Amino acid sequence: MTKDEAVAKLEQIATLLDLRGENPFKSRAYRTAARALESLSEDFESVVREGKLDQVKGIGEGIRAKLQELVATGRLTYLEELERSFPAGVVALLEIPGLGPKKVKILWEQLGIRDLEELEAACRSHRVGKLSGFGSKTEENILAGIEQRRSYAAYHRYGDVIGLAEHLVEQLRAHPDVVRVSMAGSFRRGKEIVRDLDLVCSSAKPAAVMAAFISSSGVQRVVNHGETKSSVILEGGLACDLRVVPDEDYPYALLHFTGSKEHNIALRQRAIAQGKKLSEWGLFREARSRFSAGSEDTASERESEGERIRCRDEAEIYAKLGLAYIPPELRENLGEVEAAERNEIPRLVEWTDLRGTFHCHTTASDGHSTLKAMAEAAQESGLEYLGIADHSKSSFQANGLDEERVALQQEEIRKRNKEFRGFRLLSGTECDILRDGRLDFSDSVLASFDYVVASVHAGFSTSEEEMTRRIIRAMENPYVTMLGHPTGRLLLMRKPYPVNLEKIIDCAAETGTWIELNAQPLRLDLDWRWWHAAREKGVRCVINPDAHHVRELGFVRIGVNIARKGWLRREDVINTLPLKLVEKALRKKRGGGG
DNA sequence: GCCGTTTTCGGCCCGACTGTTTTCAGTCG
């Protein structure tokens, strides 16, 4: 029984207690206990076994007994009882926006609704609107919520599939008959949302590789199984295709299946203009030249396509087309072919360029790891500095810090900094941008931080003009270092709030305010589509993990993918700077002007 | 269910918004 599993069980209990309509403070107690357990730095099982749980604030007699049962037997009878009182589908109803425990309880008790399908039917037959507390507007909203969920079901967030994708590649790479293997498709291009995974590999024994692939762990169902192409459904409903080709075909296949379609079309047009032809099978000279040297290879079997130009890898294909190599992230036909022709493909930022990061939370607000643990994890991963930016006081829901607690945290940071060598904690805040664009702290308090992340967390339902004005007002405050998650979107869950990003980017350029690339996989905000233009205007990017747990510090790696997709170079990303230069940049920002 | 102390039960995080209602409950951040 790991700590994380125990935490999950406590949270399940809290949710089920809510559904049962128990005293809300009781379910909160379970959530508090889960948080307390999370920030436990000692080994969970030994703490329970040695009876040290009673020293943990937030875990009392009742929950302690349940954790002891869990560690001793691996079971939790209280949770099992609770689970018996609701069908599994009822819990899933909570994921519909606007439905909380009270409403779900009514739907289950009064209409016997057990899952989303039954809920949809009940809304369509207007049985829901007749319930007390419900109405026609609620029915509409529920139906819209179900519809949204359904349309999202075919899509997956990059961060949710990266583990599976890497696992599949590793499995294939370990196979003795596999020569080369790579992810292809939108995943390889680093798209924030993917529909499926595409794998390309080369082998002289495709049948053996295919057999291994369809039986690999993580495969739930085989849709198609052939010699060169197989399709499977992975756990979690993600579709995955594998293509196996002879090794000499590999570069062309990889290029083709990486796409994008638009990029491929641009490359083909270019090939045609040069008297060549490009397809997934190769790059060919026109048929009339097929008697020239080197025509004995497999291309001679496809005489109508002419002689294949041999390329050992993708870079050679680009070179034969008179182009510089184009990294997969840029292959969207958004100017990369033209840039490659002029040899102006930027040298994109790499995740190993990052020297530090800002915008991390701790247990002081809504984070699940302590300041100490975050600092240790950052040092272990080789960072030179880590910025702590817990929530400000208006974010009650996130246990935001008031001025007094800010002072305490700053004191702790000062103390810890005296102990570090070659590493520094920076004291920051994720300060709420209030409804009128004022900030949640006075200027004198803001001045006490090393830096300020200004973010919108409430009041999303406003006009674009109002929201834009609000954010610009905040950015004009000289103490605001950077704008946090500029659109507030949650991928596949919540649309961005309305905001005029052109004006925000212009304002960032004028005031020298950095814009965050929030690397939390749910956000990836600001979107990569805006970065190229922002860079051209001189806006600096800062890649932040928005980490609420030590293991989330690694999110910056996904953020770097997105930055690359946005054409950003190392010099465009502030946190590639070493500590000394970052400190200088922070002072310069304070000094006014960019 | 936990905590604190006011030693045995009362308080536990706040405010805005929506849709329902006709004065407020539920949800969300």
Automatic annotation (TrEMBL):
<dbReference type="InterPro" id="IPR037160">
    <property type="entry name" value="DNA_Pol_thumb_sf"/>
</dbReference>
<dbReference type="InterPro" id="IPR010996">
    <property type="entry name" value="HHH_MUS81"/>
</dbReference>
<dbReference type="Pfam" id="PF14520">
    <property type="entry name" value="HHH_5"/>
</dbReference>
<keyword id="KW-0239">DNA-directed DNA polymerase</keyword>
<dbReference type="Pfam" id="PF14716">
    <property type="entry name" value="HHH_8"/>
</dbReference>
<dbReference type="InterPro" id="IPR022312">
    <property type="entry name" value="DNA_pol_X"/>
</dbReference>
<protein>
    <recommendedName>
        <fullName>DNA-directed DNA polymerase</fullName>
        <ecNumber>2.7.7.7</ecNumber>
    </recommendedName>
</protein>
<keyword id="KW-0808">Transferase</keyword>
<dbReference type="GO" id="GO:0005829">
    <property type="term" value="C:cytosol"/>
</dbReference>
<keyword id="KW-0548">Nucleotidyltransferase</keyword>
<dbReference type="GO" id="GO:0042578">
    <property type="term" value="F:phosphoric ester hydrolase activity"/>
</dbReference>
<dbReference type="GO" id="GO:0008270">
    <property type="term" value="F:zinc ion binding"/>
</dbReference>
<dbReference type="InterPro" id="IPR004013">
    <property type="entry name" value="PHP_dom"/>
</dbReference>
<dbReference type="InterPro" id="IPR022311">
    <property type="entry name" value="PolX-like"/>
</dbReference>
<keyword id="KW-0378">Hydrolase</keyword>
<dbReference type="GO" id="GO:0004527">
    <property type="term" value="F:exonuclease activity"/>
</dbReference>
<dbReference type="InterPro" id="IPR047967">
    <property type="entry name" value="PolX_PHP"/>
</dbReference>
<dbReference type="Pfam" id="PF02811">
    <property type="entry name" value="PHP"/>
</dbReference>
<dbReference type="InterPro" id="IPR029398">
    <property type="entry name" value="PolB_thumb"/>
</dbReference>
<dbReference type="InterPro" id="IPR027421">
    <property type="entry name" value="DNA_pol_lamdba_lyase_dom_sf"/>
</dbReference>
<dbReference type="GO" id="GO:0003887">
    <property type="term" value="F:DNA-directed DNA polymerase activity"/>
</dbReference>
<dbReference type="GO" id="GO:0003677">
    <property type="term" value="F:DNA binding"/>
</dbReference>
<keyword id="KW-0269">Exonuclease</keyword>
<dbReference type="GO" id="GO:0006281">
    <property type="term" value="P:DNA repair"/>
</dbReference>
<dbReference type="InterPro" id="IPR050243">
    <property type="entry name" value="PHP_phosphatase"/>
</dbReference>
<dbReference type="InterPro" id="IPR043519">
    <property type="entry name" value="NT_sf"/>
</dbReference>
<keyword id="KW-0540">Nuclease</keyword>
<feature type="domain" description="Polymerase/histidinol phosphatase N-terminal">
    <location>
        <begin position="356"/>
        <end position="435"/>
    </location>
</feature>
<dbReference type="InterPro" id="IPR002008">
    <property type="entry name" value="DNA_pol_X_beta-like"/>
</dbReference>
<feature type="domain" description="DNA-directed DNA polymerase X">
    <location>
        <begin position="1"/>
        <end position="332"/>
    </location>
</feature>
<dbReference type="InterPro" id="IPR016195">
    <property type="entry name" value="Pol/histidinol_Pase-like"/>
</dbReference>
<keyword id="KW-0227">DNA damage</keyword>
<dbReference type="InterPro" id="IPR002054">
    <property type="entry name" value="DNA-dir_DNA_pol_X"/>
</dbReference>
<keyword id="KW-0234">DNA repair</keyword>
<dbReference type="Pfam" id="PF14791">
    <property type="entry name" value="DNA_pol_B_thumb"/>
</dbReference>
<dbReference type="InterPro" id="IPR003141">
    <property type="entry name" value="Pol/His_phosphatase_N"/>
</dbReference>
